[in-house]
Specification:
Distance between the termini of chain A: 38 Å
Structural class of chain B: mainly beta
Shape of chain B: globular
Largest sheet of chain B: 6 strands, mixed
Order of helices and strands of chain A: EEEEEEEEEEE
Structural class of chain A: mainly beta
Order of helices and strands of chain B: EEEEEEEEEEE
Helix content of chain B: under 10%
Strand content of chain B: over 45%
Shape of chain A: globular
Radius of gyration of chain A: 13 Å
Radius of gyration of chain B: 13 Å
Number of helices of chain B: 0
Oligomer: heterodimer
Largest interface: A-B, 26 and 25 residues
Number of helices of chain A: 0
């Protein structure tokens, strides 16, 4: 059984740029959630994807967007990067109807 | 309200001692309460979880105590080991949004 994988592991961007982060869900899991974890804080829910559609969203602006593909993998896109977007971005996969979410190792984004 | 409050922020315990981390919540719609362990540079890993119809759950050295009327739950780590040194997060699942709300985290250090 393959766990949740994310790429890239680290990324450095400048303010105003756009970034795409990728996630492959655990084998058999059809739901993907994205979280932002600022340094020293708990993860905050960005949004969730199920059946290739957004299925819930946290308190994040529209410049945070996502996609889910037929193989359940997912992308997180952030436009017009701001310094405060510097964080660890975590992807979690789960099976619909089950509460347990399994996290990937995250992508560390630094915005300069 | 979606907030989950976690305490203490940091904890130092001697090897062999008991580590206790507490969390409190307000939203009675929460239906599942997992604890995650996170090592530096890694994603959160599921440790143990409980549902609100159970007052206690034990898995090895890890025990969750749950007080539904007080809306509080806690993690007890028995016989704490230096390898347990990590950041621990409590979380609460909201079935309406299928999202996890995390506490602020507790940085545990177990001294040899």
């Amino acid at each position: 059984e393959t766990g949740v994988t994310q790429s890239p592991t680290h990324l450095i961007k400048t303010r105003g740029q756009q970034v795409t982060l990728r996630c492959s869900s655990q084998s058999g899991h059809n739901t993907v959630s994205w979280y932002q974890q600022a340094l020293g804080q708990g993860p905050q829910f960005i949004f969730q994807y199920y059946r290739e559609e957004e299925n819930g969203r946290g308190n994040f602006p529209p410049r945070f967007s996502g996609l889910q593909f037929p193989n359940y993998s997912s992308e997180l896109n952030v436009n017009a990067l701001e310094l405060d977007d510097s964080a660890l971005y975590l992807c979690a996969s789960s099976l619909t109807g089950q509460e347990t979410q399994y996290f990937g190792p995250g992508t560390r984004l630094l915005v300069l | 309200q979606q907030q989950v409050k976690q305490s203490p922020q940091s904890l130092i315990v001697q090897k062999g001692g008991i580590s206790i981390i507490n969390c409190a919540y307000e939203n009675t719609a929460f239906d599942y309460f997992p604890w995650y362990q996170q090592f530096p540079g890694k994603g959160p890993a599921l440790l143990i979880a409980i549902r609100p119809d159970v007052s206690e759950k034990k898995e090895g050295r890890f025990t969750i105590s749950f007080n539904k009327s007080a809306k509080q739950f806690s993690l007890h780590i028995m016989d704490s080991q230096p390898g347990d040194s990590a950041t621990y997060f409590c979380a609460a699942h909201n079935n309406a949004g299928n999202m996890l709300t995390f506490g602020g985290g507790t940085r545990l250090m177990v001294k040899p």
